[in-house]
Amino acid sequence: MARRPAAPFGHTAVARLLVRRAVAGLPLHCRFGDGPATGSGPSLTVHDPDAFFRRIGAHGLIGFGESYMAGEWDSDDLTGVLTVLASHVDALVPAPLRRLRGAWVRRRPEDQRGSRAGARHNIHRHYDLSNELFALFLDETLSYSSAVFTAFPARRETLAAAQHRKIDRLLDLACVGPGTDLLEIGTGWGELALRAAARGARVTTVTLSAEQQHLARRRIAAAGLADRVDVELRDYRDVHGRYDAVVSVEMIEAVGMEFWPTYFTALRGAVAPGGRIALQAITMGHEQMLNTARTHTWISKYVFPGGLIPSREAIEEHAAGAGLRIISDQGYAEHYAQTLRLWRERFTDRADEVAALGFDATFRRMWEFYLAYSEAGFRSRYLDVRQLLLTEGEPRP
Fold this sequence. Notes:
The protein is built from 17 helices and ten strands. By secondary structure, the protein is of the alpha/beta class.
């Protein structure tokens, strides 16, 4: 971040023109350097306009995020600024220039593909950062996915209670109870496996994160449930056996479009006849998904390498291709926005403890931007999160 990139000739000037034109029509209070402030709304204060526009000219929206990481701009309401931008994303670039998207966006690096080796590397980069880091901003359940609240504002109940409600809804969808043989794809830190085992289920849960496996095993043993839960370091493609139920929470986003058919085939192969599959998945609009699939984004560069959020249509298409049909589907976008707000507030409140773990100021600004960026996606409804129930169907020809 200390080095300012060299933008191709003319790109910085184009970026300056486009950004100023875009924000002029938005409900934002903007100030560029020593220039006059304009507009009203959440503030976007650019301390170093030359560096800000050069980064955007060189790397587009990746540069916008990198400029925040470098401290070149700030806001009194970062989530508010990003929500405004997400709500008007289709109008930020003039239509004629949007048709030239392929000329200025970068394609995703080949080493981020969701192959077996690529998936291990991608998961390691995010989930093996530090169990202690995640524990600082998650609640005591260590659940790293959307909670489901009873009401808003969410401050009236604990995040842990809302996370348990989310887990229980998924287990209920899958009819998990005494004697159920359950497969979980994507262990996290083990909370869903713990609650399933406490219901009397026998759980096999798989992850590619060695850090998560280690802590999940410790938590399961401490709960006295090690005889009911196996935590395996295993790729979803290498799961064996048939199960009464399968649950997978916000794992499809890490698979990659190329491997979605493989993922749904693995789900279909793992469930016994008459079994049920409960998924929790972040989704976006289908056209946005297709554009994002071809693009190296700030999130894919710094936070979730290899990840791609599917559309509801893509899930249905690939599920049907594997012989599965969706029989229940419910969205919780506002619940994820609240979850992310609570994580972000906890992260910023404990910045000194994050620093004590060895994460520098640039990382902390990156993580703050990531949480605010994600929250804005759900607040603007650019993103949604859905709980789906799948069962056997006729394979699509």
